[in-house]
């Protein structure tokens, strides 16, 4: 566990979230419950939330090692999007065309459900549904944009789902440099993630859920969660530990923790916003291989992130891995290249955290009825909304409610395990290097990179 005094400095979001970050009561002794949830991020909290609504008599317990919203849920880019880590063609291969389309529709509806539930609970998470603009800034990226539109059309999704913007239309939305075009989808909201996570923790407590903080689980087993302070005996045990999962016994190869890092600028003056735009707060990225993502915050900053931090041998996770000066420097340079209007605006916050990648890059949710063990995760970088769908689905599975949600193709999906070390380390870091190389190569040659295609096949992305 980390010192409680350090929670404020975890991210811009933790620094600016109202209310205290003083940990709530830890578990003090053995207790009995109906459902024991391990992990107080969005997955654990949404699951508790919908369980409490479905059946207020259920005794639901959340055990969180640090504080609610400590992990990726409190630190992310705040894209509450309809993105799902497995593409439509991949879902089609897994479960058929109709199931792939239904999954995508469920994700679209989930964006609105997050906004609705937050409003009902009085959680002001700065939810602004301004869509996403993904800029094409090289000819290769423009081709990729057109291919994405063609793929959406092939699955029957029209202009209201994803559309191609001309250079002029894209520049009007986001005043970036070298814009050749863009894709735009309306299905994304920008949020302040820690406000949502902390607000959700309060909401579930109001609904009667016991949230124990500073309570690390050491073992998850059928009908029980063992913690350092006592055991929770429960009919159902939910694993909601995402990037931290490899630290649990027997789960070393279940998921790979990959670090995504972010920076945030000081609040920018109106004169700068007049050039950058992003009115209505659409989230933004471009179509390079190594993911970048950003949002205009409600208090007028740019919050901007990307992958590229190294994977650590043995799926190790440490607070010191959250901060990589070279990656922060690269993010600041990239942001300046995107938006020259930024000038020498100061970076006030730098942070990062682990997200979880399953071997086949397909998130999953499920319940093993024989053991009562349930799980949800493997969202890669698309968990902000997907966790809500997971929470509703787990609530239906646990309460035995037959719904459309429990028939979605990710339900009960089992990803294969990752390779043992050192293969995992070699593969992950080679993949990250290849994606950076591919972006540089494409910038220089103007042609699609073979390195990217090869790594995509290797990683199954
Ligand atoms: C920098 C960054 C940017 C991102 N940007 C986006 C984005 O813009 N949009 C998007 O959709 N997704 C994004 N993601 C991914 C998204 O944040 C995650 O997919 C999502 O928050 C996962 O939620 P979770 O509750 O499953 O996991 P987490 O939020 O990581 O929660 C897991 C919790 O489990 C606790 N825990 C771990 N081990 C134990 C234990 N043994 N006992 C008790 N508790 C334990 C942890 O302390 C943690 O609080 C980003 C992630 C990162 C790191």
Structure description:
With about 450 residues, this protein is an alpha/beta fold. Strands 1, 2, 8, 9, 10, 11, 17 and 18 form an eight-stranded mixed beta sheet that branches. It has helices spanning about 10-15, 40-55, 70-75, 90-95, 95-120, 140-155, 165-175, 195-205, 270-275, 325-340, 385-400, 425-445, 450-460, and strands at about 30-40, 60-65, 80, 130-135, 165, 180-185, 190, 210, 215-220, 225, 230-240, 255-265, 285, 290-295, 300-305, 345-355, 365-370, 375. The protein contains 13 helices and 18 strands. The structure holds flavin-adenine dinucleotide. Flavin-adenine dinucleotide binds near residues 42, 217, 242, 248 and 384.
Which features characterize this protein?
alpha/beta, 4-stranded mixed β-sheet, binds flavin-adenine dinucleotide, 8-stranded mixed β-sheet, 18 strands
Give a short synopsis of this structure:
With about 450 residues, the protein is an alpha/beta fold.
Helix/strand layout:
Blueprint: H1 12-16, E1 31-38, H2 42-54, E2 60-63, H3 72-75, E3 79-81, H4 88-95, H5 97-120, E4 132-136, H6 139-154, E5 163-166, H7 167-173, E6 181-185, E7 188-190, H8 193-206, E8 210-212, E9 217-221, E10 224-227, E11 230-239, E12 256-265, H9 270-276, E13 283-286, E14 292-296, E15 302-306, H10 325-338, E16 347-357, E17 364-368, E18 373-377, H11 383-399, H12 423-445, H13 450-459
Parallel strand pairs: 1-2, 1-11, 2-8, 4-13, 11-18
Antiparallel strand pairs: 3-7, 4-6, 5-6, 9-10, 10-11, 12-15, 12-16, 14-15, 17-18
Helix pairs in contact: 2-8, 2-11, 4-5, 5-11, 12-13
Task: Look at the helices and sheets and give the structural class.
Answer: alpha/beta
How does the major sheet shape up? 8 strands, mixed
Helicity, as a percent range: 25-40%
Number of strands: 18
> Mean of the pLDDT scores?
95
Distance from N terminus to C terminus (CA atoms, Å) equals 33 Å
Indicate the radius of gyration in whole angstroms: 21 Å
The residue ranges in which pLDDT falls below 50 over 5 or more consecutive positions are none
How large a portion of the residues is in β-strands, by DSSP E?
Answer: 15-25%
**Overall geometric form:** globular
- Small molecules bound: flavin-adenine dinucleotide
Q: What is the helix tally? A: 13
């Amino acid at each position: 566990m980390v010192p409680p005094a350090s929670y404020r400095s975890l991210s811009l979001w933790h620094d600016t979230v109202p209310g205290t970050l003083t940990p709530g009561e830890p578990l003090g002794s053995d207790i009995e419950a109906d459902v024991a949830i391990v992990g107080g991020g969005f997955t654990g909290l949404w699951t508790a939330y919908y369980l409490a609504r479905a059946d207020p008599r259920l005794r639901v317990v959340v055990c969180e090692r640090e504080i609610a919203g400590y992990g990726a849920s409190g630190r992310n880019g705040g894209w509450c999007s309809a993105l799902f880590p497995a593409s439509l063609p991949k879902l089609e291969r897994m479960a058929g065309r109709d199931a792939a389309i239904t999954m995508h529709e469920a994700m679209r509806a989930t964006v609105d459900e997050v906004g609705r539930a937050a409003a009902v609970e009085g959680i002001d998470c700065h939810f602004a549904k301004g869509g996403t603009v993904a800029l094409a800034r090289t000819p290769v990226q423009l081709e990729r944009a057109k291919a994405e539109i063609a793929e959406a059309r092939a699955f029957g999704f029209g202009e209201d789902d994803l559309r191609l913007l001309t250079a002029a239309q894209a520049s009007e939305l986001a005043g970036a440099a070298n814009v050749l075009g863009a894709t735009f989808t309306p299905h994304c909201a920008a949020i302040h993630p820690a406000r949502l996570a902390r607000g959700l923790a309060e909401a579930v407590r109001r609904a009667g859920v016991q949230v124990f903080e500073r309570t690390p689980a050491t073992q998850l087993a059928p009908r029980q969660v063992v913690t350092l302070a006592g055991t929770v005996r429960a009919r159902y045990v939910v694993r909601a530990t995402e990037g931290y999962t490899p630290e649990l016994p027997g789960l070393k190869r279940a998921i790979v923790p990959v670090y995504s890092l972010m920076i945030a600028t000081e609040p920018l003056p109106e004169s700068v916003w007049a050039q950058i735009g992003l009115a209505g707060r659409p989230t933004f990225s471009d179509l390079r291989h190594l993911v970048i993502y950003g949002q205009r915050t409600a208090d007028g900053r740019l919050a901007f992130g990307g992958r590229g931090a190294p994977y650590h041998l043995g799926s190790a996770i440490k607070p010191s891995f959250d901060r990589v000066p070279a990656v922060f420097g690269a993010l600041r340079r990239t942001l300046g290249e995107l938006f020259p209007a930024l000038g020498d605006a100061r970076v006030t916050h730098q942070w990062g955290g682990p997200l979880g990648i399953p071997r086949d890059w397909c998130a999953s949710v499920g319940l093993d009825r024989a053991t009562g063990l349930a799980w949800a995760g493997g969202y890669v970088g698309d968990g902000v909304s997907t966790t809500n769908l997971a929470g509703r689905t787990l609530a239906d599975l646990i309460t035995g409610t037959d719904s459309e949600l429990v028939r979605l193709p990710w339900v009960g999906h089992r990803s294969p395990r990752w390779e043992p070390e050192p293969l995992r380390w070699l593969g992950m870091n080679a993949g990250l290097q290849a994606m950076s190389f591919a972006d540089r190569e494409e910038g220089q040659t103007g042609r699609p990179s073979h390195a990217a295609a090869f790594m995509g096949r290797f990683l199954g992305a």
